[in-house]
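Lay summary

Proteins are chains of building blocks that fold into shapes. Our project writes down both the chain and a compact code for its shape. Here are two examples, one after the other.
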Amino acid sequence: MPRTTIEIKEKIEYLSILDEHGSLDSKLEPALTAEQLKKMYWFMFLSRRADERMLNLQRQGRLGTFPQSSGHEAISIGAAFALTAQDWHVPAYREQAGCLYRGWPLVQFLLYWGGYEEGACIPEGVNDLPYCVPIATQLLHAAGLGMAMNIRKDKKVVVTYFGDGASSEGDCHEALNFASVFAAPVVFVCLNNQYALSIPLSRQMKSETIAQKAISYGMPGIRVDGNDVLAMYVAAKEAVDRARKGGGPTLIEAVTYRLTAHTTADDPRRYRSSEEEAVWAKRDPLIRLRKYLQEKKILNEKDFSDMDAAVTEEINAAIKKFEEIIATPELNDPLRMFDHLYFSMPEFLAEQKAELAQFLTGVQPAS
């Protein structure tokens, strides 16, 4: 038999609505109200300013090492805005803006990156999972949630996030494959910020896009300007609506850039050029949305100034609350680390707790 060609119907689109110069494709502009657009900007701006203050706290030794979210706000907010409160939101570790919008108090991030597990406690009534630092493991959790929703005939949707580096992990393949096979209502959002820590995308894969990997999993895929919150919202809304109607998962590749280091322990000057950083700085999602809001006369300079003052006040209040919480004797008791891992503490852990208690009181354990 001769060789035959297998026709692949799927094509990968690229979506951008509001470009880096503020030019708008009005035919693609989503029908968002002025209040919705202001809310988008508020949470993006709050996240950016909090990121900057948290960096100062970390440099002062008042916060631990953490990955900043600056530059990723449009991805996080655009996707989170497409969800209802009843849907599920499964973040990685750069979704600060979306988590704030979903109802996480700012003090929670301070606690989490300060090394206190209380920061992983999701507020009551918020259908989110905690931040996930291990690479790509949250994707399996999201796929499992989606599969469970189908079993329960629950019309909810899951949105989860991962970086371009995570797409090289086996967990990512397994999650995408299972979600596709079982038509799980999951939207996978890849934050393609060009680097897996210090490894550029060209050293991670030979495919032209990450979005095209969706074809091999039998699901829709789309590449989006990740610095354009309007495009992110439109792509996420289409994917969420399709999933809710039983159309299964979608892969969204959001093209963006880290405006800061990978984490506060990283030095990007060792692998990125200042020229490259300058190009991407002009594509800042906050600058772009601000221009758009001004052009539409939704916010003016006084509004932005008032917002700056309100955000500063909110951040100061969160820092004050954080420092009051961590000053309590309960949070400073190292014995608490043993108490919440198991429902019933195993004997070997009880022995370790007793040994540490003796050490802290200066009493040497019996030999």
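And here is the second example, written the same way.
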Amino acid sequence: MRETGRLPAVAAVVPARNEAAVVGTAVASLLDQDYPASLHVILVDDHSDDGTAEVAKAAAAGSRRPDGLTVCRSPALPPGWAGKVWAMNTGLEALAEIAPEVAPDAAYVLFSDADIEHPPDGLRQLVARSESERLNLNSLMVRLHCETPAERATMPAFVYFFRMLYPFRWVNDPHRSVAAAAGGTMLVRRAALQRIGGLAAIRSELIDDCALATAIKAGKETGEGRTGEPHRIRLDLAGETRSLRGYGSASGVWRMIARSAYTQLRYSPMLLAGVVLAMTLVFIAPPVLALAADGPARWLAAAAWLLMAVSYVPALKYHGRSPLWAPALPLVAAFYLGATLDSARRHWVGRGGEWKGRVRAAEPNP
């Protein structure tokens, strides 16, 4: 993306809870950015007990911006706030206090997870595109960790199913209501945050990235010839930005899906039933019929299975996997469906929506 002129200052907010294993690499990748304007990183230590803050400070000391890190500790989680959103909000409040000294003209806030490694030119490209396209939110879905057998088998499907749920072309179209973002990398205009009332507007949201995208896109811009123009957002696949977070075994991947799948369905039993029916008909029934049926039904099912596999190939290639994994998509879909059902079960027994071992605090009684 060609730069359109002088790039503005940026402040990065990184919520971190027990991230000592990865936060050093993540913080260093931000402070080592090849970015020509001011860049300051605020790490919010959300009650870690593994030395997260110390690891981050050590990484900053060895970076090209040794004075570019501020570490603050998140206050106790108040009722009605999701843990990660509260940590993000703590970072914004810290930015407001230190801005006159370290980022007086920061036009953007980069929300980045503590397990994300950014390429040296990543921020420059994000800001240049946001400036040239007048984006209020510019987000990247990063390359997920695919090292263990379970991760290699299941993680590419996360991007595949996410894109089915939120087609990127629709997200990026200002005239469609579909909105989504990937929380690992979200560059947001500070003015857009102010217009929606800050992160308090999404304080209880467990899927904070898509909630923030929805809140920002729903607004209208006025003035300068843009009367009634929807707020512009963008979501793309990342180039080299990647997640350092490993989920290890199949049970780790299962827990990751189950944490928020039912939340994504707005806790609706009807939507859950619809997903079960759709996933069964689209992904599970074709291979079953192709192997068990006779006559035309077998060939139609085999054709559906083939088309399904072909559609999965881009997600596999994005994560460096062989297209030979594509025919196994029905098994992966069954795995995701099982985790989604488990997500509903967890919600019904009061254990839904955990983040880093913590359940959202309840709203106070009126």
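What can we say about the second shape? The first strand starts at residue 9 and ends at 16.
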